[in-house]
Amino acid sequence: MHIELDPSASPIALPAQAPARHEPLMWLNADRVLYVGLLGAPSVRTFGAYSIYVSLSKPHRISVAGGAWEEAEVSVVPPSVPHRIAAGERMICNILIETDSVAPGRLPDYIARGCGEVRDPDVLRGLRAALERFRCSGSRQFPQTADFDRSVFGEPLVPRAIDRRIRASLARIKDDPNSHTSAQDCADASHLSVSRFLHLFKAEVGTPFRSFRTWQRARSVLYYVTQNANLANIALDVGYPDSTHFSHSIRQVYGLTPKSIFAGSRRLELYGRAAAGSPRYQFA
Predict the structure, then answer these.
(1) Would the pTM count as exceeding 0.90?
(2) pLDDT (tens digit, 9 = 90+) per residue, 249-278?
(3) Under 8 Å CB-to-CB from 80, ≥6 apart: which residues?
(4) CB contact at 8 A, 34 and 152
(5) Backbone phi, then psi, for 262, in 5-degree steps?
(6) CATH superfamily name and code, 25-153
């Protein structure tokens, strides 16, 4: 990172009468995503991460797990919980926190207990201030996840303590989410039976192995959204057997078809650095 963002700086409230102009952008690494861009009109979506939605100026509407619609300026959806969202303006901010990277009992209360609207003006003010600092910074980079957390949440989120054998499997999947790493592969590498590995994985990570792997593959599509490439080729590159499976799986996760996602990302500026070593994941 070329410019340090000072997390102790006084919050910068966005003027109510003249909201800041936001261009579409996304910063991401293996543990966090910060997206500011078009929402579109998604159907039900289900992310494998904690999801925080922040309205840029006008409230959005959200329905979690089939519940009643709520109007909110900040809302939180727990991992693996289906929800629907409708923005009150063309763009919205969405922050994703990977479940394996944080201790659930040590998260800020509004995230740990959040399920729908967050009624806390300090949270809204702090998140909008962080977004404004990022928007106005020169490099728009963070060397580590902890640096991202300091800027957005005021301090690093406490990491989850995970058994070293499961941590090795997590690294294997996250370093190359598009590979067809099986539970048997991971169990063999961990010197565990498959049944013991699957039980331990869910206990340590908080989500079943197969669900985690499916989410990581769908999440990896975010690294490709600014590429002007054939979707069928991208489908194969990210590990889907064909474009039909690709379209179905992505729609289940994001509530949008790949075609809609890529069309809405044409002007998106991409920042960040993944943990993966593959050159295609490296962004300056």
Answers:
(1) no
(2) 999 999 999 999 999 998 999 998 643 333
(3) 46, 47, 48, 207, 211
(4) yes
(5) -70, -35
(6) Jelly Rolls (2.60.120.10)
